Amino acid sequence: MLHEWADGDVRRPVLIRSLPPGWRAISTAVRGGGIGPCGWWLNAQVSKTYDHPDPVAHTADLAASFGLARAGVAMLTAADVTRFTTAENDGVSVVATVGLGLPVPAAAHPDHAATERCRREPGSGPGLHPAPGTINVVVTVPVPLADAALVNAVVTATEAKTQALVEAGVPGTGTSSDAVCIACPERPAPGEEVEAYGGPRSPWGARIARAVHAAVASGTTDWTTMHPSGDPHRSWGRAWP
What we know:
CATH class: Alpha Beta
Largest sheet: 6 strands, mixed
Structural class: alpha+beta
Number of domains: 1
CATH architecture: 4-Layer Sandwich
Number of helices: 4
Shape: globular
Order of helices and strands: EEEEEHEEEHEHEH
Distance between the termini: 38 Å
Helix content: 25-40%
């Protein structure tokens, strides 16, 4: 699952998760976004100053370098992907990478958002170059989900992620570059039906919520332990609301 790719003279880690034939996914990723066939998930670590002019083409090249020929989902993060966390709940499996350099409240005032953008710029403070703030999550569900259930599952996973952050005292609902992928079989096995619901009180939505919450909570604990209060990489704004 954990591999390396060559970023010039630097070797950087990349997570790869292969999926069985006949699977599909919904995703917000830079490559493979939307709903479609999905044979793999890739989460590559990049530099904190990553500025490739065409991230879609870049991730296509990355996937090809690992022989990933089928359609798939590729994400990028400057967080340390070697510190990925996992969780399972009654058949649902989650892998997450958590970076909390700059958590943000989703519904921020425009002035607040402008301040966040300033804090992102290298040199925005004495010696300050905030660590990446990206939470990337991939969820695999062993049963087929209808289109509406997939959309609902994205909402459920996001709510569970935010719950973990709030419980940990993180001043944000997530980060501005978070990405999520929910993958499942395209068709039901004999005797099965396509699941119509993905909300947090549906059978599979509840499992998604618990697994995402556990993985993100674990990653949040790890990140905040590595970057305690006062760490220059911890560019946190005021608490919300």
